[in-house]
Automatic annotation (TrEMBL):
Cited InterPro entries: CT_C_D, Cyclophilin-like_dom_sf, PxpB
Residue span, Carboxyltransferase domain: 4-203
Segments passing through the bilayer: none
UniProt-recorded name of the protein: Carboxylase
PANTHER family in UniProt: 5-OXOPROLINASE SUBUNIT B
Organism from which the protein derives: Pseudoalteromonas piscicida
Statement: the UniProt record of this protein carries the keyword DNA damage: no
One of the record's GO molecular function terms: hydrolase activity
Keywords: ATP-binding, Hydrolase, Nucleotide-binding
């Protein structure tokens, strides 16, 4: 099993951190998914949030922090590394400059026609590798290499809710209006985050996302 460090974050959270260079990302994801499931199943945490190299778990009872630090360390090598049973989400997307302000600029920069850009972005299945940045914001791995672009040098202050974006090797959907530095290609009407729901975030680590071009 991959080495890790485990420590408290404030009064209510603990972090399990995997070294950045400890394993390939696929192997690391299996470890993080297994840890999240194990902690979720315990019923002792308000939320368990995986990131690219770590899991942060928020305790219901902060007095149990030391107990869980010891428990995680003792059981680390016994985690069952099974691939998650993902949910497939088909996300309808309206592409184009009316819905994604960077659509035409991205096409020009990558030397693609508008339809080629759409076809590439919808040609693959993406996997939720981790959550972060905003509640319900999922980092979707699997972006075709032909669409890899660095993040914008200057973020914008207003990204509309439901914006479909790309940056580096990821795609993403903005769950709410916010600032952002990703390249915006389109928009969806699917609601990704509902704090009143039993499962507040539609997308969960390990889930599969397929983008589908939608007519206006």
């Amino acid at each position: 099993m991959t080495n890790m460090s485990c420590y408290r974050l404030g009064e209510h959270a603990i972090v399990v951190d995997l070294p950045c260079a400890s394993a390939n990302q696929k192997s690391k994801n299996l470890t993080l998914f297994a840890l999240k499931k194990w902690l979720d199943d315990s019923g002792e945490f308000v939320d368990v949030v995986p990131a690219k190299h770590s899991v942060t778990a928020y305790l219901k009872d902060p007095l149990q922090a030391q107990h869980w630090l010891s428990t995680i360390e003792q059981n680390w090598n016994d985690l069952e590394l099974t691939a998650p049973k993902p949910t497939l989400h088909r996300i309808p997307v309206k592409y184009g400059k009316e819905f994604g302000q960077d659509f035409e600029k991205v096409a020009r920069e990558l030397g693609l026609t508008h339809q080629q850009l759409i076809d590439l972005h919808t040609s693959v299945e993406y996997q939720v590798h981790f959550m972060g940045f905003l509640p319900g914001f999922a980092y979707l791995a699997g972006l075709p290499e032909a669409l890899h672009l660095p993040r914008k040098s200057t973020p914008i202050t207003h990204v509309p809710k439901g914006s479909i974006a790309i940056a580096d090797s990821y795609s993403a959907i903005y769950p709410c209006q916010s600032p952002g530095g990703w390249h915006l290609l389109g928009q969806t009407d699917i609601n990704l985050f509902n704090p009143e729901s039993e499962q507040v975030s539609l997308l969960q680590p390990g889930d599969i996302v397929r983008f589908v071009e939608s007519s206006c």
